[in-house]
């Protein structure tokens, strides 16, 4: 009789009845399992994340109970919260995003595209903390200390307690922390530092995991806030293993067009504050400064009667931003007219133009349409649909919309105007900038309390919205 092993539900069983555990493999990123080792996870497509795992039933647990290293468990109402109080960084826009400042022992991951201003912002934060009496250690793996010193002199970020070091070895970085005992630590960036005890090159999955774990352990054990700079991939997500975002306390995304001075800082994860706040910054040769009132950058000509312009108000987190939309509709001799956008989703514009042509009879099939926003702002939410439509209609007919008009609403495929959230905050921001007339969805008109001096009109569909602005247009045309 054959005496080979018999497989029972993934466990090898011999003739005598004893079981020998067969090790499997598990992805450390998403938990996907496989019967043999592969270089790339079949679920999350991460490279180098599949490791050997005995799995359940693969032997007795190797970890046993030990005395608590931080003392016994306490009733929740007897735990002090003093150590978890945030301390302001001195940069108001950054404090807004972080929820008040940096918490002792917190680890912040700041990610963004190359050249967006991450290092400039953190150098300014480090200098402010140093001038406030704290000892700051700034370790750079991308530049030399002389290059960082030149930038610090240009943006006036010099302080005697701001320490600089250029290191790419993790052991040396931890040695600097032991030697200087900083109150704030900045690492620029995590993808440039590697450990000699771990295989792989700097920036690899294993190295990024080791470096981030070591920095997090050092920050937690000392009560030292740490800020780690991270790179992003082509699609804008944080480069490296997904566990990096799980381990840190705060994940911030620094965004901005390279050809624009405006920079936006968002928190996609925050254990100590909100994730719906947005910080606005102005990046120039003299450094980076916060913009407490950025709406003025986007409405330079909105108060003037210019054909093809319309103002809308978008919500970036909880902050309303007034944005001017400009449209240019011109006859085209090409068989396929152009649709060019800047700051607006091209698919959204195509949908709005199709609704205008089908529901209002606007002739746009033989017209080139160029649509842009002022100041490098982006209109990505549906609340700007009505402004896009009115700007395109105004440019097509070569007539200007009424002066001081703001349009809010999402356009549906049937031509209806749907309600959008935050109508009150949007109208208050428009009124503060001097706009005195607004068109909003008719379904929201009963819930709106108009700001002082603002006349709010409701429109159920695009045709009604055009009629509401038609009297001044006709008068202008007749004259």
TrEMBL record:
Amino-acid positions noted as binding ATP in the UniProt annotation, renumbered to this chain: 112-119
InterPro entries: AAA+_ATPase (IPR003593), DNA_repair_RadA (IPR004504), P-loop_NTPase (IPR027417), RecA_ATP-bd (IPR020588), Ribosomal_Su5_D2-typ_SF (IPR020568), Ribsml_uS5_D2-typ_fold_subgr (IPR014721), Rubredoxin_2 (IPR041166)
GO CC terms, sorted: cytosol
Region (Lon-protease-like): 368-479
Record carries keyword Transmembrane helix: no
GO biological process, one term: recombinational repair
GO molecular function: ATP binding; ATP-dependent DNA damage sensor activity; damaged DNA binding; hydrolase activity; zinc ion binding
Presence of the UniProt keyword Protein biosynthesis in the record: no
Keywords for the protein's UniProt record, in alphabetical order: ATP-binding, DNA damage, DNA repair, DNA-binding, Hydrolase, Metal-binding, Nucleotide-binding, Stress response, Zinc, Zinc-finger
Domain RecA family profile: residue ranges: 83-232
Record-linked CDD domains: RadA_SMS_N (cd01121)
Pfam families, per database record: AAA_25, Zn_ribbon_LapB
Record motif RadA KNRFG motif, residues: 269-273
Stated role: DNA-dependent ATPase involved in processing of recombination intermediates, plays a role in repairing DNA breaks. Stimulates the branch migration of RecA-mediated strand transfer reactions, allowing the 3' invading strand to extend heteroduplex DNA faster. Binds ssDNA in the presence of ADP but not other nucleotides, has ATPase activity that is stimulated by ssDNA and various branched DNA structures, but inhibited by SSB. Does not have RecA's homology-searching function. Plays a role in repairing double-strand DNA breaks, probably involving stabilizing or processing branched DNA or blocked replication forks.
UniProt free text on domains: The middle region has homology to RecA with ATPase motifs including the RadA KNRFG motif, while the C-terminus is homologous to Lon protease.
HAMAP family listed in its UniProt record: RadA_bact
Family: Belongs to the RecA family. RadA subfamily.
Protein name in the entry: DNA repair protein RadA
Taxonomic source organism: Cellulomonas gilvus (strain ATCC 13127 / NRRL B-14078)
Lineage: Bacteria, Bacillati, Actinomycetota, Actinomycetes, Micrococcales
Gene that specifies this protein: radA
């Amino acid at each position: 009789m054959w005496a080979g092993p018999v497989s029972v539900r993934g466990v090898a069983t011999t003739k005598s009845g004893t079981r020998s555990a067969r090790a499997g493999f598990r992805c450390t990123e998403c938990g996907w399992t496989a019967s043999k080792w592969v270089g790339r996870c079949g679920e999350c497509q991460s490279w180098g994340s599949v490791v050997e795992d005995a799995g359940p039933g693969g032997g007795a647990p190797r970890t046993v109970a030990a005395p608590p290293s931080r003392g016994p468990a306490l009733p929740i109402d007897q735990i002090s919260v003093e150590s978890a109080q945030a301390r302001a960084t001195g940069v108001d826009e950054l404090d807004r995003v972080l929820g008040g400042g940096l918490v002792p022992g917190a680890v912040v991951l700041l990610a963004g595209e190359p050249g967006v201003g991450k290092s400039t912002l953190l150098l300014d934060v480090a200098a402010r903390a140093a001038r406030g009496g704290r000892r700051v250690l700034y370790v750079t793996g991308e530049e030399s200390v002389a290059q960082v010193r030149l930038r610090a002199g240009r943006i006036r970020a010099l302080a005697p307690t701001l320490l600089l070091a250029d290191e790419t070895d993790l052991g040396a970085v931890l040695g600097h922390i032991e030697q200087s005992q900083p109150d704030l630590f900045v690492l620029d960036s995590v993808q440039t530092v590697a450990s000699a005890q771990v295989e792989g090159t700097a920036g690899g999955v294993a190295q990024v995991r080791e470096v981030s774990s070591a920095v997090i352990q050092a920050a937690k054990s000392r009560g030292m806030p740490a800020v780690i700079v991270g790179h992003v991939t082509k699609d804008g997500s944080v480069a490296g293993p997904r566990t990096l975002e799980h381990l840190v306390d705060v994940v911030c995304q620094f965004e901005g067009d390279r050809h624009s001075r405006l920079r936006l800082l968002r928190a996609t994860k925050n254990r100590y504050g909100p994730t719906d706040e947005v910080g606005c910054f102005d990046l120039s040769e003299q450094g980076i400064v916060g913009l407490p009132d950025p709406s003025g950058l986007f409405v330079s000509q909105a108060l003037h009667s210019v054909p093809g312009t319309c103002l809308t108000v978008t919500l970036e987190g909880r902050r309303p931003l007034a944005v001017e939309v400009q449209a240019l509709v011109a006859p085209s001799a090409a068989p396929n007219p152009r649709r060019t956008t800047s700051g607006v989703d091209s698919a959204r514009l195509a949908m709005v133009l199709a609704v205008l042509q089908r529901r209002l009879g606007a002739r746009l099939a033989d017209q080139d349409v160029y649509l842009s926003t002022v100041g490098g702002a982006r209109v990505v939410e549906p609340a700007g649909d009505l402004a896009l439509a009115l700007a395109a209609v105004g440019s097509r007919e070569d007539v200007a919309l009424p002066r001081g008009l703001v349009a809010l609403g999402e356009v549906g495929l049937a031509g209806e105007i749907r309600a959008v959230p935050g109508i009150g905050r949007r109208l208050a921001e428009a009124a503060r900038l001097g706009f005195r007339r607004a068109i909003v969805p008719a379904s929201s008109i009963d819930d709106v309390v108009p700001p002082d001096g603002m006349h709010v009109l409701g429109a159920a569909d695009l045709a009604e919205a055009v009629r509401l602005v038609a009297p001044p247009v006709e008068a202008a045309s007749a004259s």
